[in-house]
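REQUEST FORM: STRUCTURE PREDICTION
Request ID: SP-0412
Submitted by: Lab K.M.
Chain count: 1
Length (residues): 363
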Amino acid sequence: MQTAFVTMAGLDPKHIIVILLATFSVILCAEAVPGWEKLSKEEELDLDRQLKLINKPAIKSFQTEDGDVIDCVDIYKQHAFDHPMLKNHKIQMKPTTIPKGIRNHESETTYKSLQYMLGNISCPQGSVPIKRATRKDLIMARHIKSIGFNHPTNTNASTSGIDEGGHHYAGVAYRAFVVGGRANINVWNPSVKVNQFSIASMSISKGPKQQMNNVQVGWGVNKALYPDGSRLYTYWTDNSTGNWLLTFFNEYVGYWPKALFTTMADGADYISWAGSTYSIITDPTPTMGSGHFPKEGGYGISAFVNSIQIMPNRFYKFVSPLYYVLDTFADVPQCYDVIKNVAKDPNWGAYIFFGGPGNCTFQ
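STATUS: Completed
RESULT:
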């Protein structure tokens, strides 16, 4: 399973910005999904063939405390360059435009946070850290698709009624042209079982259901995918070049090249900030956010997303959307709900409280 993603990873201020074209990989437990050991010999050989294509020669390697192997790979010899749309791609080494509203005073926090994520791994100049893919990663990628973990957090198609696929949402949406969005997403550790997930994210998309392009930012919990709890993933966009950029704590990390998008090559027409859950429809639903309804408390009790902002045009300025332009949605409010507001405090701006205890069955 491949996603062509170009990363500007300034993990060490002494090093130049380097580029990472990363493959999608996951962390998992062998016991998480029953039946993995029942692979046929042909299936095993097929997985091994895929791994030989994905894992490129390493200049240097590290092993993390979790047991993962991180390879330092030449920036021009990574798996994402195998993508047919990127054969002649010219790497964008830095953003062409820095949007107004991106603050620069968090660099020390950024550096420490990125170093924490990689366990203080430092690759030689001109190489980038990539997790070495395993058989389990490839099997889990298939499993994720089968249970709907890659289902876009998007309610364009339906904002009410029970989703027969087992997905449920609670959040707000802005339904107009945007070229970017951002928010602070409160991290919790909701209770989920195997074959369930619970996430909180910002989702930007465009296109009809069968042709939809979508990118998301936030955190998620899936027992099989991340057995040790919540993980943070973030996206930010800059359309001066047509590439969709990624930032983490205002640090420019990378981008998805414009060539990979069809409907979103020039912008998006839908952006949401929401909690989302998935479970098999015969099982009780997992908790969302903190597990508390918004009306049960507020800060410190209910999960929130604050500092909600959009970039509605190519003047490269993030602005807070007005209260009335944000549509609330909660397809099963008896399980999960949402409350929106706009604070006078600029550090909060437009915000939502969302979530609920779940434990609902639909049969």
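NOTES: Confidence is low (pLDDT under 50) at residues 7-36, 104-116, 156-161, 230-235.
Reviewed by: T.R.
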